[in-house]
Amino acid sequence: MENVVGIHVEVEFLPFYVNQPLFHDIDSFLVEKGFTLIDLNRALFRSANFDRKISSQRQVAWGHALYLKKLDQFNDQSDEAYLKLGVRLLAICLAFEHFDLALQIVKERRLASLLRGKHGDVARDVAAFAHEYTNNKLSRIKSRRHIRDAYAWVFRDWKK
Known about the structure:
Blueprint: E1 6-12, H1 23-32, E2 36-45, E3 59-68, H2 79-95, H3 99-106, H4 109-118, H5 122-134, H6 139-143, H7 147-154
Antiparallel strand pairs: 1-3, 2-3
Helix pairs in contact: 2-3, 2-7, 3-5
């Protein structure tokens, strides 16, 4: 798990299966491995005693959680490995619509320096991607989360 930058996992808050780990188990495990919870999309269920005549909140049953590592956790890596991990982290942030975090990542000094040597102003390209996406011009990416497409858009001029 040393070079894993992100995990998107289904988590349960209620037991559906015998001996299954619940959210708190998964969260504890991933935090111990250096991940931070970034996003949580929840599914809510009605109680078995639900009465349509009474307004009531639903209970959190399960969800999808996005965990990411911070880029500074990879400072001990070589420049080449650091660049690859940083670009992976950037692509995940773009695909999951965390544009502010993506901009923060590309402005990190070491990564910005490495990217500039290969691609130019990636921060400008990430900002442009976020604006186009927000203005609904990238509907194919918006309708489905394609990390590869987000990566390809930002690095469309990348020269190996």
